[in-house]
Amino acid sequence: MAAPKKGRGPASGGQGKPGRALAAILVAIGALIGGMFWSGDTTPRLGIDLAGGTSITLRAENQPGKPDSINNTNMQTAIGIIERRVNGLGVSESEVQQQGDRHIIVNIPRATDSQKAEEQVGTTAELYFRPVLAVTGSAPLPEPSTGASPSAKPGDKASSTPSPKASATTQGRAVPEALKQDETPSPKASTPENPAATPAPQPSASGAAAIAALEKQFTALDCTPKKDTKEVPNPARNSDPAKPTVACGTEGDAKYILGPAEVDGRDVDEAQAAINQQNGQWIVQMEFTDQGSKKFQKITSRLSQQQPPMNQFAIVLDGEVVSAPSVRTALSANAEISGSFDQESATDLGNILSYGALPLSFEKESVTTVTAALGGEQLKAGLIAGAIGLALVVIYLVVYYRGLSVIALLSLLVSAILTYVLMSLLGPAIGFALNLPAVCGAIVAIGITADSFIVYFERVRDEIREGRTLRPAVERGWPRARRTILVSDFVSFLAAAVLFIVTVGKVQGFAFTLGLTTLLDVVVVFFFTKPLMTLMARTKFFGSGHPWSGLDPKRLGAKPPLRRSRRVSATTEPKEA
Fold this sequence. Notes:
Strand content: 15-25%
Helix content: 40-55%
Largest sheet: 5 strands, mixed, barrel
Number of helices: 14
CATH architecture of the largest domain: Up-down Bundle
Structural class: alpha+beta
CATH superfamily of the largest domain: Multidrug efflux transporter AcrB transmembrane domain
C-alpha cells in the first residue's frame, strides 16, 4: 500500500494558520485608529442636514453660442470663483464640490443668512479693469495739484503688485476722473493778460469730501487675511463700478486705490496662457471684442503716459485685485500680460480673464436650509433607528445561533470600528460628510453584514447535517459560502456604484456609505470571521457540539457519521473458486 504524501495542506480555506489573518486585520485596525487620533479627526464630519446650514445644488448650462462649454476646466474655474464668494460670507468649513459632469454642490455650515448665501452663489461674477491710483506703501494722496504725478516702486510679482514693504514718495497727484464731475471753474484762473483762458479745474466741496473719504478708507484698510477663515477683507465687492474704490489683493499682500471701471469682463473675448518664444517665459494673451478693444485702447493710451503706479490697471474679480500689470504702450484688440508666471499661475489668470463672469450659467436645482437643532434631532432619530435595528439582529443571532452569535457579534463590532474610523479619516481626506442618507446606508449595512455571517453558518450546519464533524464542516462549507458572499456583495456594491454615479446631492451619501460597508463586509468575513470560526472549531465547546454552541448535531438532525468503505488488502489471498 502506497504511503500517503506528506506536506499536503488541508482543504481550501487553510485550516493551518488562521492566526495570521486575525493578526493582520487587528494590526490594520490598530494602525487606522492610531492615524485617526494622530490627525485629531476623531469624529466623522457631519453634513448640512445634521450639523445645520445651507446646501445648494447648482446645475451647469451651456452659454449661448458655446455648446461645448461644459467641461472640467470651466467647472473647476467656476468652483474657484464660487469658493471665493462663499469664503466672503464669513463662514468656516464651507465646501464647494463638483459632482458628476455638470453639478456643483455648495455646503455652507451654520450660515446665519441663507438668503445672502443664495444670492452670492451661482450668480455672474464681477470682472472689471480699473486704473490704479495708489498702492500699498504709497503716501496718502495730498491736496489736488495739476503739476505733478506720483511715483512708486512696483513689485516684481506675477500679478505686478508691490510688496507691502515697498516705499514711495509722492509729490502730488492727478485728480481721479470720477471726482472731477463736481468740479467748477475757478474765477482766479482768468487774468487780464489772458481773459479767454480756460479755467483750471478745481474740486468742489463734494469732490473734496469724496477724496478725503477715500483716503481715510485707504489708510484704515487692513488687508491681512483672517487667521481662522484666511479670508481677505473685500470692501470693493458690490461697489459702484462708476466710482473709485479701495481694494485688496487676493492674498492680502497689497491694497489699492482704484479708479472707476473702464472695461468689464464682457469685453474680453478670450484669454489663454502661452509661452513667449523669445525668452521662454509664460505670458497671458488676451483678445477683446470690438467694443472692448476700443475701451482698452483708450485706457492703455492714457496709462502708458503715466508714472508708476498710475501706469497700472487692476484686474478686479469680485472686488479683489487678482493682477495689476503695468502698461508700457497703447494696446487695442490684442494684449499680453507678462511677469513671473509659471504654467499654473498663467493658466489661472487666463481662466479668470476668459471666464470672470462665470464660464457657465447655473440653475439652482435645490436649496436646503437646516437649523442645527433640527439636524441634531435627525441625527438622534437616525442613531435610535440604528440601535433598534442592531438590537433586533443581536436578538435573532443569540436565539437562533446561540454560541455562534459570539462570532457574529465580534465580527459586527470589527466592522463597526472600521466603518467609524474610515468615516472619520475620509472627512478631511476627500471631504466626506456624514449626512442623514449616509446614516441610513450604515443602518442597511448591518443587515448586509449579518447576512454574510448567516450564509457561512448555514453552510457549516449543512455539512454537519450530512454527518461530518465540525472541523471538516468548517473547511468544506467555506468555499461554497465564499462564492455566495462574493456574489451577494458584488451585486450590492454594483448597485451602490451605479447609484453614486447617476445621482447627485445627498443620495450620493447613501450610495457611498453602502459601497464602503459592502467592501468592509468582504474584508471582515475573509480576514476575521473565517479565521475566528476555524479557531473556535478547535475548542471543546464547539468541537464537541455542545447544545449551546449552535452546532449540536442532534438539534440539527444530523445523519449518522459518514464511514469510508474498507479497502481490500493487497495481501489478501483470493478466494478459491
